[in-house]
Specification:
Three copies of one chain form a homotrimer. Chain A is of the alpha/beta class and about 675 residues long. Helices cover about 30% and strands about 20% of the residues of chain A. In chain A, the strands form five sheets. In chain A, strands 12, 13, 14, 15, 16, 17, 18, 19, 20, 21 and 22 form an eleven-stranded mixed beta sheet that branches. Chain A has a nine-stranded parallel beta sheet with strand order 7-6-5-2-1-11-10-9-8. A five-stranded antiparallel beta sheet of chain A has the order 23-24-29-26-27, covered by helices on one side. The longest helix of chain A has 27 residues. The model of chain A has no long low-confidence stretch (mean pLDDT about 95). At the A-C interface, helix 2 and helix 4 of A face strand 16 of C.
């Protein structure tokens, strides 16, 4: 038993002579797991009734014969040409109203009965054929679900979805506040998908009616899910092995919280922006979000590039050590597999310059290959130590696709405030202080956490406000920010003081907010005298029971509270009313963590996490994201990668260095 | 009798219990006028034959019962869903050729017979029902007309419009200069609306044939007008009360000069860019333009936000005092009503964060509510003092939609020169010097003015050149600028020296002009040695009878005149050939005003206007747009807001402060 | 015999009285050649069967009577309205899938049989009618071919083109690497034009499959060519006079190398960006490319503006002397005609502000007219001295449309690397050092050159690598750069070390490359200690047999070679692996030229070329592109423009000054 290592492998693009080279190189890099068949629909089905699995047989057979595990895909991530030609309904109509024809990938209409039937059929055939092959350890449905369709089939399916949600038009009209601008619907057939042809006056985020656009986001996420479920069900008829599809981390179009229960394990593809100083924290946030989808269960890192991407305007090279570091970061946050896209670089088309373990020249003496092989050896040495481990977090960060959508499709107060920016600033503060964080849905059980952070929680649904009050009541700390508590589940404003149902916990009310262009700064003086900048959004916070913790320095609202803390039961409600710069967010989060003894003293660029293995052993991960060596404090334990026992004290982390320590006792 | 105060009120969005709160709050803020029913088509007509006025009855009835006046809308500003479903022809085809489906507002095809018939029908029903209600003081047709349609109905209507304008294709071919690029039309049906599918090679301003695009602007303005007229006519059958529609000030798509005669009074919505230092002058220009539409008659400020907008990327808050200041500015320029959008913030959809007198929490102790109520009290104290007053301007600024369109759809000399920028720079210079300005059409009677300013008068039509010569001949001053006098009514170049028919008055000719990127500056040395920058456009002015007043300092045309003054009869023709910075425009305008004794000595940020009430009393308005207090000279008179008599001397204007003084004698 | 001087003349836009003025002015400016009829289709054919050449008769007749030569156009550069109305198939469908209707120009579907038939028919009629007129010296087909169409006719024609190229789908699938993303085509009818509706995920350069997009570029270039050929063939039935069409220099959409053999002489339109310091070199490159199309034969400068363009956002004025200078530059690089667009400015439509020899006022005392007339006189004095002269270049620069397309539609490594930027940087270095350069296709005979420069030669086709090796083997120098030698004729990566087949000649291999945002700089230390910046792309060059000439200074690859030189036979292969700034490219090219004694010692801004006349006389052109006078070394000879004999020594070039010297002996 060890952590699966390998990735996407497309030998169908090559003559079989090349396969020999592949497996030889896989051996030398300790690659034991291959994701096979992601884009093989045209290969396995050349017309409506012609299936041919001979090549796939040879691929899977060869992998099995070489002792490798296979994550076998249904191959429906891209449609074959004949399918589109024969059934034009399977393509999408885009936001601009353009009917797509054949081309690209990720392009199926999620409401097409033909696509549903035929994608499930091929998935079922594959499951039937390979279910008994012991090399197959998991099923990979489709690929990176996403995008939207606005065709007539989707319009009809949307109306059905709305009928189920609202029962009658009266409820729908109320939810969407249709009296505004004379939109009262008197027949279901009057409802059109919200697009450039209908409600949107600019791009996808500029709608006349937030309600319909929000519901279309929800519908589209569900519609894509039902395609996944159709394939999964077809597989289940033949196999009980785990089924997954590869998610994309911080991906707005799909509400992964609605999907997660239908995946046997979560897997995701990590393609961060390479050159951003916040990338390390951003990846950590994504990992924690993915881990949180199934209550903390380990996930697979399904894809990452060993070197560069290709699809961006500029595609920098991962520096030496970075691929290893980021692989270990995934494990540190809960990954039980480390896989790459791709094993061998394709010759032609749009990913020929995407990084690969094996390049066009087939060499094993490139830097990339050597680093992959070194990581393979390292993982082999590690064995099963990390498998199944869980993260014992005492901090929860609420992540909510509905708030993400609602905030970013809103007209006013500010298009410059982005949900992820606010979330990431708060997560990053926690991450810098070494706190393990569960990133969870707003419906998650919060009873086990000392700290709950809810950045930009625009929408407050169900009993959430009460559950947050309970966290504080029993001594915990709850943090929320500007633009939280504004709307209900239908995106209608709460008819009460801002922040709506969060008001009692926060002990504040907000009547006014200023929004300004990027670059307009209002300094905020914090309780200990620290001065930090704020920008973009400035809520004029009126404490009711809270005490001011920071005040604006400028403008007509100089002296007005910008940050407050409210004592609620045994605990606190913190309200951050201004768009603080990172240093300000750090300051607030440090006050919060310190109260609960959760801030760890690590130097800058050092990331620390803890995982607890099924046998109870505690694993400390230390990662240096900096280009300079750094000394850090360590607890006593066994350095699993270095192999030696460490005493409590200090240890040197190389640039991009990693330590995994099984703590003593 | 007092100035109406209040604004848009949409109680149909709320349960009636809320209406009680509304009227209680209206009382406390002295709100006496409500604009009702702007988006009620779906409310009053739920299908082709089903009209139901019961809710509107209760709204109007309640307002009347509370003693409030009603500006009653026809409700056609947005179409109900059933209308679009039943008659798809009522939606638009956009510039890109996309056929719109149901959604949004301001989206009706202006050439659709169905829309014309049904919008007029509902307008007539409303007029019939409420004409006798004494609370109703005006009719509000549709809402903020604008936009364009390119459907086949519009294509047919455009051809009819062209037949009326040109009689035969020979005239049309000559007007559009179709021989260029082989466009000679031999049948009316060959003519297509100019769009992304036809003549436009980039966006709406980039056309291969200026002639057809210019005529489409004119046609579309007329087509929208005919929809207004259909509603007005339907109202007139039942009511003689005044009819208006809300204009949008400096709004390019519609030639308000062609519309004005059909409004019983002008009303407009003022949503300026909040953070621009030129905003105060820009609003003043818009007010003066609106006042000029009907020969100086007072207008209504139909909408303004009490606090923030919502539809912009960034929506700043109006600073304390600014809402009051801008309200008084409207009155200073001729407004006889001060109304807001909106009375109560809607719960959902795209304007839920738009500022409102009453917010979601329904409070009367917010800053916004308090400021509204204070203004209400102030206006009540003022009573009828300003009603019906007129502005005794001795300066006219020519404003011409044809020139605006022609200049901005022109290929060459420079896309960076914007009509409004040039107009605003000249208006702003006059405004800074306290000159009252009538902003008038090129057809206006100019015989009463000392100074006529015609910035960027690209197109010269009819007998205008002669009338401008008369202004100068009798001792007046005429000012025009670069890019004036270039084309005739068909946008064909004058076959004579630039500036065409303005040449004799200006005493110059221009053979060459240079245009350069923003940031390329050529200093101009003015007659008294002052040095100012010029940029964007540089005409090489050759005086024939004029004398140079400013010369370029740089480039191969250093020493060439950039600004000239020509003695013509008893007066002067000034030609500004370069894109002068504001200080340069100020310098020129000061020379001009000084000659006529029209420049007043007010400090920066202080705006001064004069109105003469029907009883002959003269009202001096003084407005401080600055954030600092400032001392200004005042004539002797009665401070109408403060209540005390002032002697000639100096008075302090608070930041954003206002004085209205009834001058003695 | 003298060089033709004149340009586009559209008297059909004017009453005949104006023609008298025109010819009077032409005489005074020595204008002897008129391009007539470019947009006359609507004039000569007013419906399917109605041809009328009476106006064209008068135009051509008058020109002939005045002793002027005529370049007679077929008039098909813009379609008449009736054609589009009667045959909608003749318009295009654009990249976004929008079906165009009537409007604009350059808008015919190149695959439309109707367009093909009718355009050839009118071309034939014109040829038949005017073939015998001795004033007609050349035929001008259509105008500035370009653009793309994506209609169903083009889809069908594309499939035919593909059948011819690939014979069977198996070959096509291999060429496009369709196994990637499940694109295996099983029927020709499944293939769609690559557009926003199919393979493109962003604009025209962002495709999922480079193979199909590359082939569509090739197909579209060929499709437009076949329209040209149809017209040419129709002309040939009646006339043996030379046929051309006006090219556009560095124009990406059309592979002029595929067209050149079908033109009897090359002609092109020169509208450079006016304000760019690299403009002079850029024009020189374009001239040399145009000259290279037909093996060094002289070409016509078919269009240039005498003063300004109109279609740009900003249209600067040509400074005094610049029009003359740029005219002589064309001659210096091989032009045997100097023509303008346009003789008289049109009154209306989008080119009314485009510069013209005669402006709207019809004056002959403008600066522009005087400069044109002076040039006319100068050319008359020059007589036949330059006609038919050839450029004796010892340096070849490879220019390859396939590489241009392939590089710029590639996903990765960097969208910021532009083919022309790399080509121009290398050309500019050669140009600054006074080297005459032939810009040639990759299929050109390279045996006569000392130096061959192949910048960004992304695609290497046929036997090119071998022919480059021969250049070096016999003592020549070959230079190539980053991103060369990457793909084969189908845009599939070479399955070998980078730079593919160029590897042996370059003596390097490249496993990794870094790409970074603009502004990220890595200095490169060159062999003599010079330090230059590099940016955008950084290949980590591993010498196999080459010697390092420059090394990176920064990042983890500090010390790694960035520039290398390989001894190959008697000569050298130079590899420039980094995106060097101009100074770095200059440094490399100077080493190369110095070895062959080809760098001439001219000061900055001075351009020098040599042409050899048919009688063997050598003509030295010296052009000062600077605004300051400069002294340059001259050989002994006759100053053809000044008329005096010069001794070897130094001579002063005025700002924008020109010398043409017939060298002694």
């Amino acid at each position: 038993m060890k952590l699966p290592f390998g990735g996407d492998y497309n030998p169908e693009q090559w003559p079989e002579a090349v396969w020999d080279d592949d497996h030889r190189l896989f051996d030398s890099a300790r690659i034991d797991t291959l994701t096979v068949g992601v884009f093989t629909w045209a290969l396995t089905q050349s017309s409506l009734e012609a299936y041919d699995f001979s090549t796939l047989d040879r691929i899977v057979g060869r992998a099995a014969a070489e002792g490798r595990q296979v994550c076998l895909a249904t191959g429906t991530g891209a449609m074959p040409p004949w399918l589109v030609r024969e059934f034009p309904e399977v393509t999408r109509v885009d936001f601009e109203g353009r009917e797509k024809r054949y081309g690209g990938r990720h392009n199926h209409c999620p409401s097409s009965p033909v696509f549903r039937r035929l994608s499930a059929r091929v998935a079922g055939r594959i499951a039937e054929r390979y279910a008994g092959n012991p090399a197959v350890i998991a099923w990979h449905v489709n690929n990176e679900y996403g995008g939207s369709c606005y065709c007539d089939l989707c319009a009809a399916a949307f109306r059905d979805w709305l009928r189920k949600r609202y029962d009658d038009l009266e409820s729908l009209n109320a939810a969407w506040n249709t009296t505004f601008w004379s939109h009262t619907f008197t027949g279901w057939e009057q409802i059109e998908p919200p697009s450039a042809l209908t409600e949107h006056w600019k791009g996808p985020d500029f709608t006349a009616f937030q309600g319909i656009t929000l519901d279309y986001h929800r519908f589209m996420s569900d519609a894509l899910l039902s395609g996944y479920l159709a394939e999964k069900e077809a597989i289940r008829r033949f196999s009980a092995k785990p089924v997954t599809t590869n998610f994309m981390g911080l991906f707005r179009p799909i509400d992964y919280h609605r999907w997660a229960e239908h995946l046997d394990f979560v897997s995701w593809d990590n393609y961060p922006p390479d050159d951003d100083p916040a990338t390390a924290a951003r990846m950590a946030l994504a990992h924690d979000l993915m881990r949180g989808l199934k209550g903390g269960a380990p996930f697979w890192l399904m894809e990452q590039t060993p070197s560069t991407t290709a699809c961006r305007d500029v595609n920098p090279l991962k520096r030496p050590g970075v691929m290893r570091l980021w692989s270990w970061q995934a494990v540190a946050h809960g990954a039980d597999a480390v896989l790459f896209f791709q094993m061998r670089a394709s010759r032609g088309a749009c990913e020929k310059y995407h990084g690969a373990v094996i390049g066009h020249a087939g060499r094993d003496d490139t830097r990339v290959f050597r680093e992959v092989a070194a990581l393979g050896a390292e993982l082999e040495r590690l064995g099963e130590a990390t498998l199944g481990a869980r993260t014992p977090a005492r901090v929860a960060l609420l992540f909510d696709w509905d708030s993400w959508w609602a905030l970013e499709i809103s007209d006013g107060p500010s298009r410059l405030v982005k949900y992820l920016d606010v979330v990431l600033a708060h997560y990053r503060a926690l991450w810098r202080m070494g706190a393990d964080v569960d990133v969870v849905a707003v419906t998650a059980d919060l009873s086990g956490y000392d700290v709950v952070v809810a950045p930009a929680l625009h929408m407050v649904k169900g009993d959430l406000a009460g559950r947050l009050e309970q966290v504080a009541a029993r001594g915990g700390s709850v943090v929320t920010t500007f633009l939280s508590g504004r709307v209900d589940v239908d995106d209608n404003a709460f008819l009460m003081d801002v922040p709506g149902p969060l008001g009692p916990l926060m002990g504040v009310r907000v009547d006014e907010w200023d929004s300004r262009e990027r670059g307009v700064v209002n300094p905020v003086r914090l309780a200990d005298g620290t001065l930090v900048d704020s920008s973009l959004l400035f809520e004029l916070v009126i404490p009711t029971t809270a005490e001011p913790v920071g005040r604006y320095e400028n403008d007509f609202y100089a002296g007005t509270p910008a940050v407050t803390r409210n004592t609620f039961g045994e605990g606190h409600g913190w309200y951050v009313g201004a768009g603080l710069e990172q240093a300000g967010v750090d300051w607030v989060m440090r006050q919060v963590l310190d109260r609960h003894g959760l801030a760890l003293p690590y130097p800058e660029h050092v990331e620390a996490t803890l995982r607890v293995a099924p046998d109870g052993s505690r694993l400390r991960f230390l990662l240096n994201h900096g280009a300079e060596p750094v000394e850090v404090a360590v607890e006593a334990g066994l350095d699993l990668l270095g192999g030696q026992e460490l005493q409590q004290g200090r240890v040197l982390l190389e640039p991009y260095g990693v330590k995994v320590i099984r703590l003593r006792g």
